[in-house]
Amino acid sequence: xxxxxxxDLFERCWHFxxxxxxxxxxxxxxxxxxxxxxxxxxxxxxxxxDAQLDRLPEQCVHRQKSIRAMMEGLAGLxxxxxxxxxxxxxxxxxxxxxxxxxxxxxxxDEFVKAVRAEGxxxxxxxxxxxxxxxxxxxxxxxxxGRKFEQEEVLSAAEELSKTAVWFVSNVLLADAEVVxxxxxxxxxxxxxx
Length: 193
Hints:
CATH superfamily of the largest domain: Aspartate Aminotransferase, domain 1
Low-confidence stretches: none
Number of helices: 8
Number of strands: 3
Structural class: mainly alpha
Distance between the termini: 43 Å
Mean pLDDT: 85
Strand order of the largest sheet: 1-2-3
Strand content: 5-15%
CATH topology of the largest domain: Aspartate Aminotransferase, domain 1
Number of domains: 2
Order of helices and strands: HHHEEHHHEHH
Helix content: 40-55%
Shape: globular
């Protein structure tokens, strides 16, 4: 879902989600102004989204509290590097919480496997965007008119892709007791590896 008061941005989004066609009624249906998809939701999906949006502010606050509890509970543990806090950020959606594992005895993948063995869902996240195979697919060149070429080394992205540990919304929306169990399990694994 996109919301905007910017008419140019609205038009670009409309083109993309409406198979490249221009907005403006039936006359515009035959005018394809750019490549697009049919990436649009049905009316029932919009109705569900509309009803769920009422819950969003409360869920964001809940996730932020969970993130705060995890930051406090994991601070100072060997091998765990927490994300820096930015004083300019006053609110987050909190759709995920991540930190870096740089333990000396175990790889990040071994760390994640051990946390999962404690019954805690976590993941290693994504590969860096510039390494995603979709960018090398012929469809990318067809859609954009050019090949994707990455000449410069993105060292920070590479490092994070090898050390990041992710906890997603289902953990962050859990009760405080569950979040505390997550913290205790991560503390256990971090001190034993």
